[in-house]
Amino acid sequence: MIRKAVLPVAGLGTRMLPATKAIPKEMLCLINKPVVQYIVEEAVAAGIRDIIFVVSRGKESLLDHFDLDPELEAELEAKGKEDLLAEVRRTSTLVENLSAVRQKKPLGLGHAILMAAPLVGNEPFGVLLGDDVVDGEEPALGQLIRVAEELRASVIAVERMPREEIHRYGVISGAEVREGLYRIEEVVEKPRPEEAPSDLAILGRYVFFPEIFAYLEKTPPGAGGEIQLTDAVSAMVRDGHPVYALEIKGTRYDTGNPEGFIKATLALALKDPQLGPKVRQFLRAWL
Ligand code: UTP
After folding, report:
1. Domain span at 275
2. Is the CB of 9 under 6 A from ligand 1?
3. Is the dihedral of CA 145, 150, 153, 157 positive or negative?
4. Which of 6, 36, 129, 133 could join 116 via S-S bond, C-beta 3.0 to 4.6 A?
């Protein structure tokens, strides 16, 4: 049973500056919830009970968001605002066990995950990146967990990307073992379009078995002086560990850049039963 998930949220969020000068990018608001809440809801729906945030300075609001707020609750109760009270309580009870570790310097995603090793211990765990929101019927992490438990191996979420966009992602190649599932042979971080080994781009959901930590420990800094998760995965694959890639059913929005953020806002608003018709009407007037 996979019960723990790591959420690395210690990055600088430079692509969303100046919004992210004083506010973590994961706390930016999509409709009426911060981005991180969509991600935590996905994890909880996938059966996760322990969430370990990897934080840096100034990210306290992320933890506060999922904590109890007795004053606010008392205020809403006194004013008879039952719906809001229920929503606030739901948020603060969403995560059964919430903990945080610090990444003192932004030394990369691989380094951030390594910081969580003492809290994860010797068991498989999920990783959800704080800017990828995945909208779909079944939680993306849940799709990975099912395969990881069946194959007793690490599984990484991927999606097909147009060639002209592939250079922004980690890209895998491998043998298809069944529809949409690949045994990874190669992982390349941000390849040039002509060097990409396939059109299967990694998105921010993973399930790892604990051997990943030993590989992260010996991974030297790579591109940008950061310890790259993809380098550690490559080394694991080279040593013969089975690592799989699963094409996720659902739509991913990268809320870490303005274009992706707007697309996520519009898509979620158009799907919303109350907002949808009004937003559609508003957009029609502009098009
Ligand atoms: P990104 O590169 O997308 O996030 O890292 P970033 O560094 O915050 O954003 P930009 O590129 O400057 O705009 C993917 C995920 O890994 C986390 C980030 O918080 C993000 O969720 N991360 C990245 C860390 O926790 N620590 C790091 O050192 C780097």
Report:
1. 257-287
2. yes
3. negative
4. 6
Which atom from ligand 1 is nearest to the alpha carbon of 10? Answer: 25
Q: Does the Cβ of 11 fall within 6 Å of ligand 1?
A: yes
For position 216, what pLDDT does the model report? 97
Does residue 186 sit in the same domain as residue 270?
no
**Do 176 and 282 have their domain in common?**
no
Tokens 């990897």, residue located = 54
Omega of the bond leading into 210 within 30 degrees of 0 (cis): no
* pTM of the model as a whole: 0.94
Q: Report d(CA 269, CA 151) in Å as an integer.
A: 38
Domain count, the chain: 2
**Which residues of the chain carry a pLDDT beneath 70?**
none
Q: Are residues 158 and 145 in the same domain?
A: yes
Whichever domain contains 96, its CATH number is 3.90.550.10
Tell me: do 216 and 273 sit in the same domain: no
- The CA 282 to ligand 1 mean position distance, Å, reads 34
Distance between Cα 12 and ligand 1 center (Å): 6
**How far apart, in Å, are the Cα atoms of 46 and each of 3, 147, 178?**
9, 13, 22
Is the domain of 244 the same as that of 262? no
Q: Indicate whether 166 and 229 sit together in one domain.
A: yes
Return d(Cα 201, Cα 191) in angstroms, integer: 10
User: Mind listing the pLDDT tens digit for each residue in 135-184?
Assistant: 999 999 999 999 999 999 999 999 999 988 999 999 999 999 999 999 99
One domain for residues 198 and 238: yes
Ligand 1 pocket, 62 CB below 6 A?
no
